Amino acid sequence: MKLTFYKYQGTGNDFVMIDNRTMIISKNDTKIIQGLCDRRFGIGADGLILLENSNDPEDDFKMVYFNADGNESSMCGNGGRCLVAFAKFLGIIENSARFTAIDGVHEAYIKEGIVSLKMQDVQEISENDDYIYLDTGSPHHVIFTKNVGVIDIQKEGAAIRYSERYKLNNGTNVNFVEPVSEDTFSVRTYERGVEDETLSCGTGVTAVALAAFRSSRTNSDKVKLITPGGELSVSFKRNEDDFSDVWLSGPAQLVFKGEIVC
Ligand SMILES: N[C@@H](CCC[C@H](N)C(=O)O)C(=O)O
User: Fold this and answer.
1) What is this structure's pTM?
2) What does the record give as the active site (predicted)?
């Protein structure tokens, strides 16, 4: 089968995008999806995203996300932002969108090349002595540390992701964070399903911003996150019981289009 694909990146978190409105690709074919994401034998990406028609008439489209290991997974923030840019490229939307992903409905808009995506409200945050755990559409373990630049993310991230604590929960993503200033944090993320460090993780930096506020490491409701792939920002509203109006913003770009035999 010949498949037309598009490659997008959002702060270096890269995705194969497929317009699957005519159901050209099957969601059950783990091997094909893994092969397309393979950096040596395929196109190469941290994940693959299908743009599909939604059953909800209020939606512009539906997002189906797979990690590079070929398995469908939980929400991908950078992927969601890239998908909005892809929907604009396809002429499905102009500068605003509403779509359904695995964690529910998302709104988004594009302004001056920056794609902003509304994330789900976050109620539960587990604050522990040496880490904070929360789910921002995907599960995230957040560690505030020094010298984030020299950490062996693959080794230390995998040790936490495969630890007893997360065994029953399908693992977790792991974020290592160093404060840079009152409202700016440097973040490196080990991603579940890629099983390595990625250059940026959208649900990860969202988790970091909320964790930083919750643990009084910042008083700002708009936080700048510096990742190895670029800069993102997260704004939110702190209510008594939850965080709402959580917006993840940053660039999302088409890299190339191609055709692959699979
Ligand atoms: N890159 C993502 C997160 C993708 C999901 C993650 N790998 C998981 O399985 O939890 C993002 O930008 O949020």
Assistant:
1) 0.97
2) 76, 201
